[in-house]
Predict the structure.
Amino acid sequence: MGLITSLIAITLRAGTSLVYATIGETFTERAGILNLGLEGIMLMGAVTSFATAYYTGNLALAIAVAVAVGGLMSLIHAFLSVTMKANQVVSGLSLTLFGTGFASFLGQRLGPASNGRYLIGLTGPRFTPIDAGALGQVPILGAILGQDLFTYGTYLLIPLAWFYMYKTKNGLWLRAIGENPRTADAMGVNVDRAKYGYTILGGMLTALGGAHLALAYTPGWSENITGGRGWIVIALVIFSMWNPARAITGALIFGGINAVQFRLQASGTNIPAGFLNMLPYLTTIIVLVAITWWETLSKRVGSPASLGTAYVREDK
């Protein structure tokens, strides 16, 4: 039972950043915007949040800075995709390249002079697991409750996101925009403004996922801190069929793979470390192939009909 509880705890921690980014991208794609800049946004969220926390000691400010940076980067993507009608794939990939390079640059320039201006190797304030008291001693429940505030945030975010998307009028309009923006426009919805808003929201949540990595999961900064999570999120959105409630399933699967990977490495297994490190990405490929095969057999297409397509409003 101790091993199971430990694996559950690690799985929840490893999946937290994925939940934030997956739900954020789900909102963005439901509005018809494809954002492939998630990796760059997560890296920028991580480096700016850690630098802010290191110099100010204020974790709340660190989160606010990360969210603002994520919102700004996604605003750029929204401007290019919605206003300029640019190719969304090219815009998103450019955002990833920019974010990856600029985050690396900041990591080499924002550190103190005593550390050669590098942020790598420094320690700062971090979010620690909450003491659940007597409940923390209960098997499994203790693993769920003994998490940091970021993970507790996902416990609220998932049901709230699902309720908003499927039980509110705004959620109905969101889904309508992604499926048929012209019809939504005819019903009085400001399509462009909605696309801007949901793209920015997605970037903010993605940056929050990056901040979790630097402030809680693996406190500190390293240039590969995301480990490709931004790309895994793209697969998780497909895996969840653009449903926020299913995002937790995908995140837990990949979080569980990470947990098993760390456990196997710590146990001194003879399995090559390189193979263990590639497990999350191998699983991503398998999941995408399986979903594509299932959709082909069931003749079902889960993605929003207008995803990745620029909407041009006709004059009335």
Summary: The chain has one domain: 2-298. The longest helix spans residues 2-30. The two ends are 66 Å apart (CA to CA).
